[in-house]
Input
Amino acid sequence: MTVNELTEDDYSDAVLEDLKVFGAALGKRDFEGCAFKRCDFSRAVLRGCCFVRCRFEACDLSNADAGGASFQECVFEASKLVGVNFTRASVRFPEFKECSLNYCNFKAMDLRKTHFVGCSIREAEFNDARLSEAVFTDSDLSASQFFKADLSQADFRAARNYSLVPGQCKLFKARFSYPEVMALLSALDIVIGS
Output
């Protein structure tokens, strides 16, 4: 199915499978309670689209232009969202499961209570983001930035490769697991020995 085959402006509780929007504009459409399965939105222009309580399963949204799009209470599962700049979209209460979020921009976004479970989140930007009570379980955070981020009560148990500098982000009651928590000491320029 291609974008030209989408004949409606509003879709509710629809299941859209194998939709190909690669590099095209989706147009101003509203999707509520829809399931997208194996759809290709890579490099697509999503401006003016509104997704409410939608599920994206095994979809590719890599390098999609999300500026002016709205994602409300959406779940992304086993999907690629590489290089998406979410700062230009309206995003509320998303959930990411086993997704690739490498090189994404979440700068200064309100992502409180967001779940990033089993995700690859390499070289992403979370600077100034509100991530209190966010969950990063089993996620790889290599080279991701959290400068001035609020990580109060965030859950980093079983997360790996994070680089957080105490004093440069808010870590009040954040949860960590051993041995990964030792990474917090690397920025302190101290010597640990027996």
